[in-house]
Amino acid sequence: MSIFQSLIKKEVLHLLRDFRTVTVVLVMPVILLLLFGFAISTEVNDVRVVAVVEQHTDETKQIIDRFRTNSYFTFAGIVTYNEVESLLRKGRADAAVVFRTEDGKLKHQIVVDASNTNMAQTSTAYLESVIRSGASIPVVTDTLYNPQLRSAYNFVPGIMGMIFIMICAMMTSVSIVSEKETGTMNLLLVSPVRPRTIILGKLVPYFLLSCIILILMLLLSYTVLGIPFSFSVIHVIWVTILYVVLALALGLLISTIASTQVSALLVSGVMFMIPVVLLSGMIFPVENMPLALQWFSCIIPARWYISAMRVLMIQQLPIGYVLTEVLVLSGMALAVLVLAVKKFNAKK
């Protein structure tokens, strides 16, 4: 058995002996994916609606009937205009629709509780669509890529971007730093083994573990969460592998900076976890951020990976549509890997 194979075997045995950590690493992606796919949803249901009708007509009756039969709404009755504010303040209604007839034409006003901005914006859009669906000139809406407007479609690429940063960068950096703390890394560095062999021996097991997690997450995404399957999954896999290599390089770079496992975790959390959640586009659109934060988000690898995954997994477009993202990730991976190896050699 070669020295390189021995190093890989050593690291694999180290992982397998730490059964609790491996279990958490494998179970955590499943829990996060299911949690964001089902429990955490940006969809709005059971919107309590009241109506104010100054003069009943066939048109107002039809609109109110649509409110009663629509599964997104709970119609709470017809009230007077003076009661609307009281109902909204007491939480007995989420929105009110006021119908007025002016010059023989029906006009409407929507009053909504905006203490929850997401619910207010979404419920207003729902109400508008129901009211206008009966107009003399029908409005035809064609929703591409996500016809059911399921929030899981939005969260899956983001969860994948976050998970691989956590597994690859954090665990790799902590593993290498723990070797420093116990003194075994110093023994390896003074041995005849080349530093690049030591680096690859430490990274390969985590790369294989990341591949297992990738397969698990893709299976859940295409089966349980119902994301449409297509042959673009091949591109999803190799772009993810590129992202994993970048994350491993980041973990290696952190290990050259941090001296203890606690500091490695803190550096990983501050440098990667917070930016990934807030600035990568996982939850909040990058386009809605201030210009300075938009520029800053360009150095966050997860931004480019999540953008590519949405194109490949959700829109199912060819790889040519994410060439910019692939080139940026490739450049980042090469730059970080070269810097990490140089710093690692300097520590020898």
UniProtKB/TrEMBL annotation:
Keyword vocabulary terms for this entry: Cell membrane, Membrane, Transmembrane, Transmembrane helix, Transport
GO CC annotations on file: ATP-binding cassette (ABC) transporter complex
Membrane topology of this protein: Multi-pass membrane protein
Subcellular location: Cell membrane
Statement: the UniProt record of this protein carries the keyword Disulfide bond: no
Family membership noted in the UniProt record: Belongs to the ABC-2 integral membrane protein family.
Name by which UniProt lists this protein: Transport permease protein
Organism from which the protein derives: Coprobacter secundus subsp. similis
